[in-house]
Amino acid sequence: MVPALLRRHPCAGRDPVIHMKAQNSAQSRVVMTEVVYPSHTNAIDTVFGGVVMSWVDIAGSISAIRYCGKTVVTASVDDVHFIAPAYKGDIINIKALVNFVHKTSMEVGVRVDSENPLTNQFRHIVSAYLTFVALDENKKPTLIPPLEPQTEDEKKRFKEAEIRRKWRLERRKLLGR
Predict the structure, then answer these.
(1) CB distance 111 to 124 below 8 Å
(2) Domain count of the chain?
(3) Of 92, 113, 156, 177, which has the fewest Cβ atoms less than 10 A away?
(4) Within 13 A of 133's CA, how many CA atoms are on the CB side?
């Protein structure tokens, strides 16, 4: 039996993903810059984690949209690691890139670094992995082109993301979801 998602697709009856032209992740690259203003900070003048997470989600969604050319929604946020603080006045550099693609979803890796413009010191402050699902005009999951990693770094990121996807699916199964 062909799932409903595939019956609607023009390649119904065949594996439609195979018939879509593979892409590389280069077009999904996002570099975003923010400044930590007083409204972004807590009582000790470090940036709120939630503020950084919103920037991570925005950069990740832009990366996903660039990759698939469709509307996307955040399905999950995994492995958010707060490594170091960022302070009022720091410049925040956010980089995002699609690591892995399944049929309707993709994993985007996001790295956040802070820069002190007065001392020229840089710190890696956050890393995260987000899963986005592409939607069609009816707001239903839709197929996206497969990812074909080109560089050694892209191949490594792809393999690691594939492992994280398996972990996510196993965790869902264990939790009965």
Answers:
(1) yes
(2) 1
(3) 177
(4) 10
Instruction: Give how far the C-alpha of residue 155 lies from the chain's centroid of Cα atoms, to the nearest Å.
Output: 16
The terminus-to-terminus CA distance of the chain in angstroms comes to 23
Quote the tokens at residue 93.
Answer: 């550099």
The residue segments making up the domain with residue 161 are: 20-174
Residues 6+ apart with CB under 8 A from 84: 114, 123, 124, 125
pTM: 0.85
Rounded Cα–Cα distance for residues 145 and 78 (Å):
23
Q: What percent of the chain has pLDDT over 90?
A: 80
Number of CB atoms found within 10 A of residue 104's CB: 21
165, part of any domain: yes
* Sign of the CA dihedral running 31, 32, 35, 36: negative
| CB distance 107 to 128 below 8 Å | no
Percent of the chain topping pLDDT 70: 89
